[in-house]
Design goal:
This protein is 54% helix and 19% strand. The protein contains twelve helices and nine strands. Helix 11 links the parallel strand 8 and strand 9. Helix 1 packs across helix 2 and helix 3 runs parallel beside helix 5. The chain binds ligand C2E and calcium ion (3 copies). One calcium ion binds next to loops. This is Diguanylate cyclase.
Length: 277
């Protein structure tokens, strides 16, 4: 027993060491990227299901290292959160999204831009002030900016979330509840939150065709959103049949690989022109 306990322990520490090393390497890369302009935003189109028109884009952050390889946010956002770098990263994302919105407007491309806000950032008292400063500095029409915050971040402390959301909304910015259906929403709380949109989590959308339970959840979310006067947005749409299904259910907006993967800004603009959207 002692033997195996010891070897398990050794195995465990090695794995921990490796993880710590990886996290440290990512932290160094992230610090460098923040300092030297090594971050990029890619944009994924959001389409209105009734008109078929482009209505917006979700900005998704990417990190490029010196060799030009891209590292995904699923890897470095947790590191940014653990090291406190998330505040700087979040500010950069907001400012860059506003700058891109302005650049596109000048080219005649108008799209609401959604940015993701980490739960940690969302709870920082300074966040709303910083956002207000970025909006004022960029001259963006605040109603063209949307904040995405996850359901779980908001439901953790509803009273606090309402206050924060009210402050954000008072800037004129839109608010979407991201990854909806995976957290533990109290339905009565949901109706008290100042929101504009529910984003149905992709885990349901991607299983729609093979899983009746995912259809049930998706339909319930759409009905709930409609009753609460919120837009409902499906993400993770990978097939035309899923798209048709969501449209038939009354889902308002859609996003997914079926339309396009997240694209660098120039490619996004080209995509919009080529599709005539
Ligand atoms: P999310 O906010 O739920 O973003 C959607 C993710 O799903 C994106 O992954 C997107 O590329 C991917 N996706 C979109 N359509 C499809 C589809 O049809 N099929 C599949 N399989 N995937 C699809 P990405 O870009 O790797 O981002 C992962 C997560 O990282 C995001 O999930 C978000 O939580 C976080 N993230 C991304 N950018 C930022 C940011 O600027 N700030 C913060 N705090 N978090 C971010
Ligand atoms: Ca999102
Ligand atoms: Ca999501
Ligand atoms: Ca609606």
């Amino acid at each position: 027993v002692k033997q195996s306990g010891r070897s398990n322990y050794q195995f465990y520490t090695t794995e921990l060491d490796e993880r710590a090393e990886l996290a440290h390497m990512l932290e160094v890369k992230l610090r460098t990227a923040l300092r030297d302009g090594g971050l990029r935003l890619h944009y994924q189109p959001v389409v209105d299901l009734k008109s078929g028109k482009l209505v917006g884009a979700e900005a998704l952050v990417r990190m490029e290292d010196k060799e030009g390889a891209a590292i995904g946010p699923d890897k470095f956002i947790p590191v940014a959160e653990a090291t406190g770098l998330i505040a700087d990263l979040g500010e950069w994302v907001a400012a860059e999204a506003c700058r891109q919105h302005d650049a596109w407007l000048r080219e005649g491309l108008s799209a609401t831009i959604a940015i993701n806000v980490s739960p940690l950032q969302f709870k920082q008292a300074s966040f709303t002030d910083k956002l207000a400063g970025i909006i004022a500095g960029s001259g963006i029409d605040p109603s063209c900016l949307e904040i995405e915050v996850t359901e779980s971040a908001v439901m953790e402390n509803v009273t606090e979330a309402i206050e924060i959301l009210q402050r954000i909304k008072s800037l004129g910015v839109k608010v979407a509840l991201d990854d909806f259906g995976t957290g533990y929403s109290s339905l009565s709380s949901l109706s008290t939150l100042p929101l504009d949109k529910l984003k149905v989590d992709q885990s349901f959308v991607r299983r729609l065709e093979r899983d009746p339970a995912s259809r049930a959840v998706t339909e319930a979310i759409i009905t709930l959103g409609q009753r609460l006067g919120l837009d409902v947005h499906g993400e993770g749409i990978e097939s035309e049949s899923t798209l048709r299904y969501l449209a038939a259910q009354g889902c308002d907006q859609a996003q997914g690989y079926w339309f396009s993967r997240p694209l660098p800004p120039e490619e996004f603009a080209r995509w919009v022109r080529e599709k005539g959207l």
